[in-house]
UniProtKB/TrEMBL annotation:
<dbReference type="GO" id="GO:0016491">
    <property type="term" value="F:oxidoreductase activity"/>
</dbReference>
<dbReference type="InterPro" id="IPR015590">
    <property type="entry name" value="Aldehyde_DH_dom"/>
</dbReference>
<feature type="domain" description="Aldehyde dehydrogenase">
    <location>
        <begin position="47"/>
        <end position="202"/>
    </location>
</feature>
<dbReference type="InterPro" id="IPR016161">
    <property type="entry name" value="Ald_DH/histidinol_DH"/>
</dbReference>
<dbReference type="InterPro" id="IPR016162">
    <property type="entry name" value="Ald_DH_N"/>
</dbReference>
<protein>
    <recommendedName>
        <fullName>Aldehyde dehydrogenase domain-containing protein</fullName>
    </recommendedName>
</protein>
<dbReference type="Pfam" id="PF00171">
    <property type="entry name" value="Aldedh"/>
</dbReference>
Length: 227
């Protein structure tokens, strides 16, 4: 038996304008993002108070982001330490903290498409990759919620009439430095254990032309909504 292959010309595919293949900045709910401190958005205090951030795939401006100064960082740390010393989170029971982390995971899982879209726009990474990656981030909250519930101290032997034991306690305000290429994923990997331990958190994302705080600001608002 012989096979005969015939090549037939086809109509050329319509060219899609480069920019039309990407989502636009309309995916963001505001034109400017401030610093999220003490439960609200605030402007940066310096002269260069904001930076324009572009979609690296299209060079379209997505939004402006606050350009924090050292004074702004001090403000955030002081706010975090004040919340820590107030004790509503740092002295909450392990069970209560675990319940909140599980609630965060549930709320986050419902909004993965929204987060994935923002992550894709601000990093230039494919939306398919972002969807696959971000579907795993609720698991980090669930994992550390379970770890907090089951964490046990130890009773090392000690000479004399003493009881010697170890207990894990929160440290205070924890600084998280998040890289630009996977801002939400890596932020959550650090945020979940810090919160599970009872700490307050200040998250810092180095701002450049390929990333900004859009998805992390959205995460901050989501965390605030969990009671």
């Amino acid at each position: 038996m012989m096979w005969r292959f015939v090549a037939r010309p086809t109509a050329p595919a319509a060219r899609v304008p480069h920019r039309a293949r990407y989502a636009s900045s309309a995916a963001f709910d505001r034109d400017e993002y401030g610093l999220f401190i003490d439960g609200k958005f605030v402007a940066a205090s310096g002269e260069d108070a904001r930076l324009a951030v572009e979609n690296p795939a299209t060079t379209e401006r997505l939004a402006y982001v606050a350009n924090a100064t050292a004074a702004d960082v001090d403000h955030a740390v002081a706010s975090g330490q004040s919340a820590f010393e107030a004790g509503s989170w740092s002295r909450a029971s392990v069970s209560d903290r675990a319940n909140v982390l599980n609630d965060i995971a549930k709320a986050l899982r419902k909004r993965i498409p929204e987060f994935a879209r923002k992550e894709s726009l601000q990093t230039g990474r494919p939306i398919r990759e972002m969807r696959a990656q971000l579907t795993r981030i609720p698991e980090w909250f669930e994992y550390f919620a379970a770890l907090a519930r089951t964490s046990e101290g130890s009773v090392p032997p000690f000479s004399g009439p003493y009881v010697n034991y170890t207990q894990r306690l929160p440290l205070g305000t924890v600084g998280l430095i998040t890289p630009w290429n996977h801002p939400l994923l890596i932020a959550v990997k650090k945020l979940a254990p810090a919160l599970a331990a009872g700490n307050s958190v200040v998250d810092y994302l180095p701002v450049c032309l390929t990333a900004f705080l859009g998805s992390e600001q959205l995460l901050a608002k989501l965390l605030q909504s969990i009671r």
